[in-house]
Amino acid sequence: MPECHIVGVLDNGAEGLSRAALDSIRGADLLIGHTRTLALFAAEIRPECETRDLSGALGRVPEWIEEGLAQGRQVVVLATGDPLCHGIARYLIGKLGRERCRVLPNTSVVQLAFARLGVAWQDARIFSIHGKDTGEWHADAGPEHGLYPLLQAIRRGDLLAVFTSPENGPGRIARMLDAVSLADEYEMAVAERLLLPGERVTGFLPASEIRDRRFGDPNVVILRPRAALPAPVLFGLADDAYHQRKPRAGLITKREVRAVSLAWMALRRDSIVWDIGAGSGSVGMEAARLCPDGFVFAIEKNAEDAAIVRRNQRRFRLTNYRLTHARAPEGLDRWPDPDAVFIGGSGGELEQLIDIALSRLRPGGRLVMNFVTLENMHRAVTRLKEREADWELCQLSVCRNKPILDMQRLAPETPVWIIGAQRRED
Fold first, then answer.
1. According to the model, what pLDDT value does residue 26 have?
2. How far are the Cα atoms of 3, 13, 52, 383 from residue 22, in angstroms, in the given order?
3. Which strands sit side by side in the sheet containing 30-33, from one edge to the other?
């Protein structure tokens, strides 16, 4: 069966190729590549070889290959570095099949960058932001932003290598770290124009020193924490870890109730969570910590509480959490379908919110609600019965120790009803 050769090349052209890779290019009848990679091998291309520029035409490349192979021509595609490391080979194999593609890899640009720095890279994670202009990171950015997956990896303290683009460059990464108060905790090295005239590799610098500098293109960023990051507490934070409005005991879902509610939500690393009536934000923020590959969408109608939620978000540096200051259900139609919904406050719209949650939950998703009044608990149960949902209820009564003279007594907290529900799939 005729094969398409996918050849990894670097900016030193023929000098950096194996004999087999160079012979493949020299024998090509159809050579496909970007303008820059085609120019690197102008002296090696046979006069009768047809060349095609794939810049802006990636979707047509499988068609060109199919046509060339059907005509019995030797088809070669030029890729950068290792074609199976954020390269074109994965895409072409998916379209043409593994048996029709032969990959001839080169040294990865990332591998070169680590070699120049003298840093071992077996534990590194590799990201690419070499795509369309994502724009600057901002406070309300979320999963739809092109830099979001990179930021989540940064928060985990991994050693990272990043393929950049002219728009999404080192400065933008540094400014993103500054926006989430992490710039002084990370350092960056930039490998510019590897194997080209003007090659330069910076040593590791604080991210705060990179934000306004300009770098030659192409470049690769190596990013690492300046010191080992302490593992965060994911679950069961003390109530006083949160800012909260305190008319009496504090407008916050207490730790014991929070723990049971989160357990009933059955969260996964990648869960999408709705937190309706966020209050101080404690439930949603612990959900965000438990779901590093997921996202929490929260809504709170009270302006003072919304301000406190934002303070707590900054305190915990949560980037997979977004607050909307509005009265639910306003804006819920723009949120993605959830794996879990928590209702801590309904603003008088309880039945409507239950209807929306049950209709939008993904298969197997869970709705969890907290109530301190008999009336609202009864309204919720009645609505769940009307919707023929599967539901369960428990009452949580907690006593905490309080000092009395030089001794301790137990003082009861307000009992809370916790209701969990799922849509009956049949």
1. 95
2. 16, 10, 18, 71
3. 50-53, 30-33, 75-80, 4-9, 101-104
**pTM of the full predicted structure?**
0.82
Residues 409 and 402 sit within 8 Å (Cβ to Cβ)? yes
Name the packing angle between helices 303-316 and 282-290 (round to 10°).
Answer: 30
CB neighbours of 329 closer than 8 A, spacing ≥ 6? 349, 352, 353, 356
Q: State the residue for tokens 């068609």.
A: 63
Residue of 341, 343, 388, 329 whose CA lies nearest to 365 = 341
What average pLDDT does range 397-415 have in this prediction?
92
Residue 184 backbone class (left: φ over 0; alpha: ψ -120 to 50; beta: rest): alpha
Per-residue pLDDT tens over the stretch 27-76: 999 999 999 899 999 999 999 999 999 988 999 999 999 999 999 999 99
User: Are the C-beta atoms of residues 162 and 129 closer than 8 Å to each other?
Assistant: yes
Instruction: Enter the tokens of residue 167.
Output: 């728009």
Residues in the chain: 426
* Rounded CA separation 383/31 (Å): 65
| Residue 305, H or E segment | helix 303-316
Residue 161 near residue 220, CB atoms below 8 Å: yes
pLDDT at 357: 97
Task: Give residue 378's Cα distance to chain centre.
Answer: 39
Contact 408, 401 (CB under 8 A): yes
Indicate the SS3 state at residue 418: strand
Burial 179-210 (b: 16+ CB within 10 A, else e): bbebbebbbbbbbbbbeeeeeebbebebbbeb
Alpha-carbon distance 147 to 295, whole Å?
14
Q: How far is it, in rounded angstroms, from Cα 5 to Cα 418? A: 61
Interatomic CA distance for residues 77 and 231, integer angstroms = 45
Residues near 362 by beta carbon (within 8 Å), at least 6 away in sequence: 272, 337, 338, 339
